[in-house]
Amino acid sequence: MPTATESICCCDMQENGKLDGIDCNDVKCITEHESFNTVCLEREVLRTALVCMSDVAGETGTESVDNRVLRMAAHRQFTWWVHDRRLGKQVIKVIPACVVAAIRRAYPEQDGSYIEGLNELPADY
CA 4, CA 8: separation in Å to the nearest integer? Predict the structure, then answer.
């Protein structure tokens, strides 16, 4: 990851074998957790999350579901899964580098250029 803040390891974020609400005692990395792939990488789960986000926001349709949109949904799914809640506007928790890498492998940007880094978040995020 391009910055030290974005390069944090999930192991460094754990406290007493937990990454917030997720028990990590049986795995070396959160991406090895039995639920990670289903919750954070499964295309239909992410598509359903996008529909829910659109519905809650009062939007009538969803934008096209390309890999950029799926990465955004995966980042949100991870945050909801680990922290058990929506964090709120402008409350930012760093997503571990291993998670970002797994999401990027699953839903790569065609040209290999990623702009959703911590420093490029919109002001109203």
Answer: 7
- Supply 40's token pair: 């954070």
Q: What is the pLDDT of residues 68-85, one digit of tens each?
A: 889 989 998 998 888 766
Integer Cα distance of 25 and 27 in angstroms: 6
Beta-carbon contacts of residue 18 (< 8 Å; ≥ 6 apart): 24
Cα 36 from Cα 29, distance rounded (Å): 10
Provide the whole-model pTM: 0.73
CB 82 within 8 A of CB 20: yes
Please name every residue paired with 23 in a beta bridge, in sequence order, or none if there are none: 18
Structure tokens at 2: 């391009």
What confidence tier does 22 reach under pLDDT thresholds 50, 70, 90?
low
Any residues with CB less than 8 A from the CB of 79 and at least 6 apart, and which? 86, 87, 93, 95
Per the listing, tokens 């997720």 go with: 22
